[in-house]
Amino acid sequence: MATRPAPCTVRSPVALQVGDVKTDLARPGVAVIDVALPPAQPLDLQEIVFKNSYTAFLTVRVQRRHPCDVGRASARKWVTCLWNHCLMPSPHTEAGSQDYFSLFRHQLLCDVDQVTAVRLILRQPSPVWLHFTLEELRLYPRGQQSLQTDFPSWLSHLAPQQQPENLHGGVPDPEKVSTEVQQLWVLTEMIRANQTAARIGRFDVSFQLALFIAHRGWPPVLGLLCGPACTEGAGCILGTGSICCHPELLPAGHAVRNAIKLLGKLLRVPGSGVLEVGNSHLP
Amino acid sequence: MAACEKRRSAPAPATGSGLVEPVRAGVGGREPESEAEFLLQAGVTSMVREALLKVLEARPEEPVSFLASYFEKLVLSGPQGGAAADRHRQQQRLVRALWYVRLAHHSHRTAFHNNVSMAYECLSARGRRKKPGVNGRIYSELLRKICQDGEAPEEVVSSLLTKIQCRDHEAVPFDVFRYGVLSCVVLLEFVAKADTLYDILDDGSGMADKRVCHAVLGTLEDALGASDFSVPIRYLEAGSKLGPDCLALAMDKALLERKICSSMNREEFLKKATALFIAKVKPID
């Protein structure tokens, strides 16, 4: 859901029973769920959403605060805004027993502004069901819709808004074109979905390194050209004992570093070492 | 027939040399129970079962010719005399691998996968001294051969191959092998489909309007690049973009543009279309 339900505390259902709960064999047919709202902010109720769990009839009462006399305790009045609303058309059978329900403001008997508490009275006349309650109870405040509103436009208008009225004479049959293009799409998607993570583990650096030294002569300038796929062009780093770690070569960076060190030692280049450079030097 | 004899004798040593003689003598048919035994010994049972499995996997339109070529290949690939040159043997392995790859269409996923792994095994078998495995040379050759039998233009094939080929000395893991083979097979089908599409676009005149071609390919590109790969909703999005309504709109709009009416020939269209496909193929690294 795109919107948030109002913050409230849903108490566990209390069964109305005459006699002792433990010893009495008769099962209660009425239960009450109280919902407490934060006292500081009365709620303008828009929608009540819940999942039924074997409740046959629902009565909803709300406690309202009268807007004109705020502050007086007597101004809070309980009113019935839903009377014996049928959730299970036939209480002995399963129908509707686990459905999701959504009660909107316009379905209720009276205004539900400035609500400070909600009481749900659940009735189940059938003895078939051992327990009955409501689950996932949520209250949505007014001004917010529980409907998702951020659908992409192509989804809410399956047919394009602007229909071509009369197609230009030379247009090929769109049905046929669409069939073929969709198949092309499927094939391409398939190859994309089948990509593997396996690698050959290619690494061509040492060869290029040697080449590079040969070209430079003495004193040797150790450097590294980028891999064959480098688009920046050759010669992106030319410094003594420095190394260009092109992103492509990074996994092999360790090996490159060792190679440079070794070469530096072999050729006795003073101060040779590894200088890591990022991409910043690239043109 | 001589090859058949060799083939038959092949499994026999594995089951114990003592049993070979009675089997050969039993061809004349001595006892009823020895018939089943003979089939088992000679490897006919497993061979026929294998053949039936292949038919079921591939579900060919003409089973008889399929089976004929299957057994023909089996004869060819049977053990040869030591005189055959190594090069010749390798060539034969290549032919056999190629045949495996073509057995089932790639949309029969399991069958195709099995066949590709058979091809891989077949290529990776080596002489006694060499280590098993598929090297880049034979892999690349197989890919080239797969691409040859389609009608794909040379240029298109080579641009795909540069992406998925391996160098001669490289060892090719199975996953890379499978992906490479699949890419080639799918490319061939892609080219065939694109060809059909061109037939529709040119409306029998042999020359399709450039603007329309661009509009159609542009729509396809748009749908392919739609959104994040992992989000399932993009399938719906692509479906809506490639529906007849949207395409008609795009083509109509393209035709209304005030440009000089030029045409696009078939080669150019195929090249442009396959470029979209090849761009999605992951290069081997």
TrEMBL record, chain A:
Gene Ontology CC terms: nucleoplasm
PANTHER family named among the record's database cross-references: NICOLIN 1 (PTHR31239), NICOLIN-1 (PTHR31239:SF2)
UniProt protein name: Nicolin 1, tubulin polyglutamylase complex subunit
Organism the protein comes from: Chrysemys picta bellii
Native organism taxonomy: Eukaryota, Metazoa, Chordata, Craniata, Vertebrata
UniProtKB/TrEMBL annotation, chain B:
InterPro entries tied to this protein: cAMP_dep_PK_reg_su_I/II_a/b, DD_TPGS1, TPGS1, TPGS1_C
Domain (RIIa): residue spans on this chain: 55-74
GO cellular component, one term: centrosome
GO biological process, one term: vesicle localization
Entry-linked Gene3D superfamilies: cAMP-dependent protein kinase regulatory subunit, dimerization-anchoring domain (1.20.890.10)
Molecular-function GO terms, alphabetical: microtubule binding; tubulin-glutamic acid ligase activity
Highest taxon of source: Eukaryota
Residue span, Tubulin polyglutamylase complex subunit 1-like C-terminal domain: 89-282
PANTHER family membership: TUBULIN POLYGLUTAMYLASE COMPLEX SUBUNIT 1
Protein name per the record: Tubulin polyglutamylase complex subunit 1
